[in-house]
Design brief:
The protein is α+β, with helices and mostly antiparallel strands and about 240 residues long. It is about 20% helix and about 40% strand. Its cofactor is Zn(2+). InterPro entries: Ala-tRNA-synth_IIc_core, Ala-tRNA-synth_IIc_N, Alanyl-tRNA_Editing_Enzymes, Thr/Ala-tRNA-synth_IIc_edit, Transl_B-barrel_sf, tRNA_SAD.
């Protein structure tokens, strides 16, 4: 499996790597990926690979369907760095950091609206969660104030790991109805917002997040849409 450098070094903007393989579709597989692959509603990272005075623009990142390894997808057909070559991988950091801010904001949204989550999506400007609830919340201003209160706390965002058996014994940790935490790869990653003794939020998640909630910045609650008899879609935007 490709190493997941994006998981252990979330704030790293560039790093060396070796080209491990090419995909039949023209993707590049590295031995240790700084690029986050599309998943969990979060888009794949974009950026650049450079080697031998050559540069390749990366449009997105996915998991290769056949091997399960992380594949960087070029923005256009161009010569790829050869297998075995050493490259510098560089993120489009502004885009990645906005994804981190939005992703963490959606965790807070799942706290202020305590209903099961049926779906979600992240972009560089806003995100949304779908909730299993029959009626739209009426207290929009209170919800927005609560979101920005959590941001103002500048609470720490950290990770922990539990076994699959421990997760089975604590099903309340799973907020998403449509996507189950990945199994079969060992321990399951938890993202905690706040302190260990009294967390604001604690749930399984494989995405990238900011280190403290203050880094999210001001938030604005957006549209609330009806997407079915028991489904409401709620948007949250960066930039107050």
């Amino acid at each position: 499996m490709t190493g997941e450098l994006y998981r252990t070094e979330t704030y790293l903007r560039d790093a060396p790597a070796r080209v491990a393989a090419h995909t039949p579709e023209g993707g590049v597989i590295l031995d240790n990926s700084l690029f986050y692959p599309t998943g969990g509603g979060q888009p794949g990272d974009s950026g650049w690979l450079t080697w031998d005075k050559q540069e390749l623009t990366i449009a997105t990142t996915v998991r290769d369907r056949d091997s399960g390894r992380i594949a960087l997808v070029p923005a256009e057909p161009r010569p790829l760095p050869p297998v075995g070559a050493f490259v510098k991988q560089e993120l489009d950091w502004d885009r990645r950091h906005k994804h981190m801010r939005v992703h963490t904001a959606l965790h807070l949204l799942s706290v202020v609206i305590p209903h099961p989550v049926t779906g979600g999506q992240i972009s560089a400007t806003h995100g949304r969660l779908d909730f299993n609830m029959p009626d739209a919340p009426q207290d929009r201003e209170e919800l927005e104030e609560a979101l920005n209160h959590f941001v103002s706390l500048d609470a720490r965002v950290s990770e922990d790991w539990i076994t699959e058996a421990e997760l089975d014994a604590a099903p309340e940790l799973i907020k998403t109805m449509s996507v189950a935490p990945p199994r079969g790869r060992g321990d399951i990653r938890l993202i905690r917002i706040g302190e260990v003794q009294d967390p604001i939020d604690l749930q399984p998640c494989g995405g990238t997040h900011v280190a403290r909630t203050g880094e999210i910045g001001g938030l604005r609650l957006g549209k609330i849409e009806k997407k079915g008899r028991l489904n409401r879609r709620v948007y949250v935007h960066l930039g107050g």
